[in-house]
Structure formats: C-alpha cells, structure tokens
Amino acid sequence: MSSDKKRLNLSFSMASPIQRQAWRTLMDIPAGERTGAVCRGRRAPCAATTRARGSTRSRRTRARRPRRATSSRLLRLSEKGYEVGLISKERYDYVCKKKELIDKEIERVSHVNIGARADVQEILKKYNSIELSNGTTLEELIRRPELSYEAIAPIDPERNELPEDVIDQINISIKYKGYIDRQKEQVNQFKKLENRRIPEDIDYNDVTNLRKEARQKLMLIKPENIGQASRISGVSPADVTVLLIYLKSRK
C-alpha cells in the first residue's frame, strides 16, 4: 500500500461523517481531475469536503431562519419605508392587513377561556406540558415554551385559517410579551431618571459598591446627569443603579 493510501485510510478513520461522505465521492473522481481536493491527513480539508460542509451549513441556516425576523422588521419599518417611498402602496397595505390579523388574533386568544377538560389535558400530555388544575386562556397556553399556536389547534375550533407568517408572529408576540413589556417599563423608568442631575461636588469614593473601573471613569469624565453616566464605556447598568441609590440617600 502506498504512503498516500495509508495516509488517506488514517484520515478516513478520524474523519467526521460529512468528511467521509465527501472523500467517498472524491475517490470516484479520476486522480488527474482532483484539482484542489488533496486529502493529506488532517492538515486541510479537500474541496469536496468544504463543499459538503458548506451546503449542509447552508441548509441548517435556512432551516433555522424562518420568516420571523422578516415579519418583525416589516411590522416596525414598513410605515417609515412607505413614507420615504421605499415600498409600494400594495406592499404597505399587505403589511397593514397582516398587522391587523395578528392584533385581532392575539386579542381573541387572550379572551378564550379553557377549562381542565379531558381533550385539553390530552394535548398537554402530548407535548409534555403541565396539566391544568383550573381554567386558563389560550394565550397562557401558547406562552408555555413547549406549546405553540399550532399545537393547541385541536382545542381551538373557532379559529380562522391564517397565513404561516401571521402565525409565526402571533407565537413570537405572545411568548415574548412579558419580556417586551418589562423592557418597555425599564426604558420608561430610565427616561424619567436620565435627566436627573449629578451634584458637582459628588465624591465617587463615597459611593459604596461601585466598581473600581466605573469609579475611575466617573471621576475622570464627571458626567452632569445620569444619562451621560450611563453612556460611559465601563459604567454598567448595575453601576448606574448603585449611583441612583446613593443620590437618593443624600436627600
């Protein structure tokens, strides 16, 4: 057996399934046509391996990227895009209709009460979800990580047929509603505090629990208010909270 053959056999035994498949394909190609597809141990993958790996990664990426991000962006940006002439009237009307369908369906499922019926419990068992001890709403069921709008279809006979991209956005809006509302509340609270002035005579050495880096940056830059302090590199939200508590205690 030639040294090249021995080296290829050793590499084959250590290769991943994708590499093995690519190398099997490679061995069916005449030696003179294996341009750039030299398989020498583990030093570099051959061209066939690279193509196989790349195509598999592309398929996985496409599978992981449904229309969710696109739908979300359309809902946020279409109005602006229409105002500046980037999208057509027909496209804008479609997005508005889509938003209307999403809002109406979310409103509906939030008011549909579901009891601890046998068919409901059967669906919950099927998806390894905790069974109900009392009534709840369809919205609360969709919010569970293991359930979705599609999963509870058998116990929701009154629903209308909706496009897939609308269903995707319904799932996202309901599942992340708590996080989004909490973030909005934090943003509103911060806006109220952003213009709160920091006394010129403040001694940051007196602010306990402030990280060393944050203390040094604040002493160096001397921000005039909380908003400026929060935008300093090296000053974390936790540091801003500590600073707010200190300012409140000074009153």
Unreliable stretches (pLDDT < 50, length at least 5) are: 4-8, 25-70
Percent strand equals under 5%
Task: Tell me which oligomeric state these chains represent.
Answer: single chain
From the N-terminal CA to the C-terminal CA, the straight-line distance is 87 Å
> What is the overall pLDDT average?
78
Q: How is the secondary structure organized here?
A:
Blueprint: H1 3-13, H2 17-27, H3 47-64, H4 68-83, H5 89-109, E1 113-114, H6 118-126, E2 136-137, H7 138-143, H8 164-175, H9 177-194, H10 212-221, H11 226-230, H12 237-250
Antiparallel strand pairs: 1-2
Report on the architecture of this protein.
A two-stranded antiparallel sheet has the order 1-2. Helices cover 60% and strands 2% of the residues. The chain has twelve helices and two strands; from the N terminus they run H-H-H-H-H-E-H-E-H-H-H-H-H-H.
Give a short overview.
The protein has 251 residues and is mostly helical.
Question: Which descriptors would you attach to this protein?
Answer:
251 residues, 12 helices, 60% helix, 2% strand, elongated
